Each structure stands twice: as C-alpha cells, then as structure tokens.
Amino acid sequence: MTLKFGVVGTGAIGKEHIKRITSSLCGGEIVAVTDVNQLAAEQVVEQFGLNAVVYPDDKSLVAAENVDAVLVTSWGPAHEQSVLAAIEAGKYVFCEKPLATTAEGCMKIVEAEMKHGKRLVQVGFMRRYDSGYVQLKEAIDTHTIGEPLMIRCAHRNAKVDANYTTEMAISDTLVHEIDVLHWLVGDDYKSVQVVFPKRTKHALDHLQDPQIIMMETNSGITIHVEVFVNCQYGYDIQCEVIGEEGVANLPEVPSVITRKNATLGASILTDWKQRFMDAYDKELQDFMDSIKTTGEPNGPTSWDGYIVAVTSDACLKAQQTGNKESVTLGEKPAFYKNEKEISKTV
Ligand SMILES: NC(=O)c1ccc[n+]([C@@H]2O[C@H](COP(=O)([O-])OP(=O)(O)OC[C@H]3O[C@@H](n4cnc5c(N)ncnc54)[C@H](O)[C@@H]3O)[C@@H](O)[C@H]2O)c1
Ligand SMILES: O[C@H]1[C@H](O)[C@@H](O)[C@H](O)[C@@H](O)[C@H]1O
C-alpha cells in the first residue's frame, strides 16, 4: 500500500521532505500540495515532477479523497488549523515542529485526537531518530553510566537571519532539546530558568545571543543548554550526560581527520539539513511503515508536542522575569501511555 500525502507548505523543509518521499524513501507518494504562495506550490510540482494537484488551501487539500496523510510544513502559527482539519477528516498527520504555537493549541489537538479514538499525529522531533541520540539513550537505559544527574548541551547555529528573535531561541531552537532530553531520561520537567550571558557582537541589535537555559526534571536532574545561534564556526549539537558511575556524550559526526601544517583537523557541518539528514529519513519512513503495519504512527505524539509547548512557554516567561518558572503539565492521558520505544524499532 502506498501512503498518499498532501503537503501544506512548500518552503525549505517542505521541499526537503517531498524530495525524500519521492526519491529515497519507500511507500509514499505526493498527490496534493498547497502553499499560501500558490506559485511556490506550482514550482514544487514542476521541480520534482510530481503527479499532484495544487489546492488553494489546507482545508480543500485535507478534504481531497485520495489524500491519506497530511504533511504539515507551513509556518508554525498555521500548523494548528491544518492538524485539526486533518484529525476532523480522520486523516494521518505528520506535523513539523511546533505542533501548535501555544499550549492551548496543542491541548486542542490532543483532545481532538483522543476524541477520534486512535493516534493519527506524529510530530517532527527528528532527533529521537538520530543514531547518536539513540545510542546515548541506550547507554542511559542500560545503566552504563548509572543514574543521570546532570546534562550539559550546546545548540549552536553558525548564523541566523534578521527575522530571528530572542524568543525564537526558545520556540524555534531550544524546542529540539526540550523534546529529546525528556525522552532521553524518561522524566518530565519541573522548572526552567533563562540566563543572558555577554552578547556576541555578531548578533543583530534586537537579538540576545547566546542564552543559557537551565531546566530541572521531576527527579532532580539539572540540565544546562547553551543556545548560540551566531557562533560563526558551524552547526554544532553537543550533549553530555553526567551519571553516578560515568559520563556519556552524544557521538561527534564522523569526519575525516587530517594532519597538515602541524595541525590535527576535522570538519564540522554547517547546517541542520546535513546534520540530521538520516534522522529526517528515518522519522518519515517510520511514520509510513508503522501506519502500514499497525494503523497508527509510532513517533513523537501530540502529547509530546504539548509537553514542548508548555515547557517552551515557561522558558519564554523566564526570559522576561529572570526567575525560575515552574512547568505544570498535568497527568499524561492513558491514550498516550502505550508508546513504543523508537530505539527498539529503527
Ligand atoms: N525539524 C526541523 O529540524 C525543522 C527544520 C526547519 C524547519 N522546521 C519547521 O518547519 C516549518 C517550516 O519551516 P521552513 O524552514 O520550511 O519555513 P519556510 O518559510 O521556508 O516555508 C514555509 C512555507 O509555508 C508556507 N505557508 C505559510 N502559511 C501557510 C498556510 N497557512 N498554508 C499553506 N502554506 C503556508 C509559506 O508560504 C512557505 O512557503 C516551521 O514550523 C519550522 O519550525 C523544522
Ligand atoms: O528551524 C531551525 C531548525 O529547527 C534547526 O534544527 C535549529 O537548529 C535552528 O536553530 C532552527 O532555527
């Protein structure tokens, strides 16, 4: 069976996902596309030689009979409406982060999905599919380093464009750590705090860069994440878990090591597309495969999207107050308690 996708939003990551579904993954086909910029949607159909209809908006695309699954890759604020429309129509949804830009929006999606009665939604938190993070999780789960006590992370982008704001360090960038870290240690967040170090001269005037976000889990694990989006030198993702019996690090991306001019060298990637290419492939392949085999997606859930939104809201508040802000999630619904471990399925 081929899963027929309708794509909402044919910008940067929309095109990346269309390319992988049509050229490197198995079992998917793009049959519909839409974008507020109709020309962009038409160009994508031509660029990738798709046999797909261009729809005027997400509602008409979702309603198309031959669309089995909706791939939401529009701007964040537009996600909620498209995801809710897809659930309403009983269609599967793969939604890029964020699931919705507010915790209330994510909760509406959670409630709609539970009302529908089976899982339809997967959120694009691709780091859970990255082989490095999967290995790190295995080391933690098998108690290789004992009980985790502290985590230190860095999320560095070489540079960002003028539209990137101080808030986006949380809502666009930190969201990846918020998702992957609670998954890594199997614990939820209790509180967050944000500290603004000395600003880099490479940030535009409106942007506080870098930022340090401190998070604490219910069991007391303390986490420090440095978000530094004008670090200049490359795209660099670091994660170190300090346990009672040892320390585990996210593996470095493999690179040829050179020896030249009295210097030992290795290259560093420059953007997220290359760094997580395999993880993007695996998350979408898993989405298609698990729907085919079990009738439900297997990856990050709407509840995971909700956890990220609540935590991200607390961080945004902490940016303003400078105080420790609490994270209040409420009980995880039983509906979301049977998730399978990705590390055991990919
Ligand atoms: N998982 C990741 O690592 C990752 C990486 C990049 C982007 N993203 C997420 O993917 C989403 C898209 O990011 P991008 O970099 O491709 O942005 P982009 O600006 O390149 O593309 C977004 C596209 O959506 C279209 N659009 C906006 N509102 C729409 C609507 N209501 N209906 C239809 N089309 C609409 C825009 O015209 C644009 O073509 C964002 O939510 C972003 O956070 C995730
Ligand atoms: O939207 C992008 C993307 O999510 C990247 O993975 C992240 O490193 C960037 O900081 C963010 O702006």
UniProtKB/TrEMBL annotation:
Q: Which residues form a coiled coil?
A: none
Q: Which GO terms describe its biological process?
A: inositol catabolic process
**Which Pfam families does the record associate with it?**
GFO_IDH_MocA, GFO_IDH_MocA_C
Reactions it catalyzes: 1D-chiro-inositol + NAD(+) = scyllo-inosine + NADH + H(+); myo-inositol + NAD(+) = scyllo-inosose + NADH + H(+)
Q: Which UniProt keywords apply?
A: NAD, Oxidoreductase
| EC number assigned by the record | 1.1.1.18, 1.1.1.369
InterPro entries with a match to the protein in the record: Gfo-Idh-MocA_inositol_DH, Gfo/Idh/MocA-like_OxRdtase_C, Gfo/Idh/MocA-like_OxRdtase_N, MI/DCI_dehydrogenase, NAD(P)-bd_dom_sf
Specify the pathway: Polyol metabolism; myo-inositol degradation into acetyl-CoA; acetyl-CoA from myo-inositol: step 1/7
Q: Please name the SUPFAM superfamilies in this protein's record.
A: Glyceraldehyde-3-phosphate dehydrogenase-like, C-terminal domain, NAD(P)-binding Rossmann-fold domains
Taxonomic superkingdom: Bacteria
Q: Which family does it belong to?
A: Belongs to the Gfo/Idh/MocA family.
Role summary: Involved in the oxidation of myo-inositol (MI) and D-chiro-inositol (DCI) to 2-keto-myo-inositol (2KMI or 2-inosose) and 1-keto-D-chiro-inositol (1KDCI), respectively.
Record's protein name: Inositol 2-dehydrogenase/D-chiro-inositol 3-dehydrogenase
The organism is Metabacillus arenae
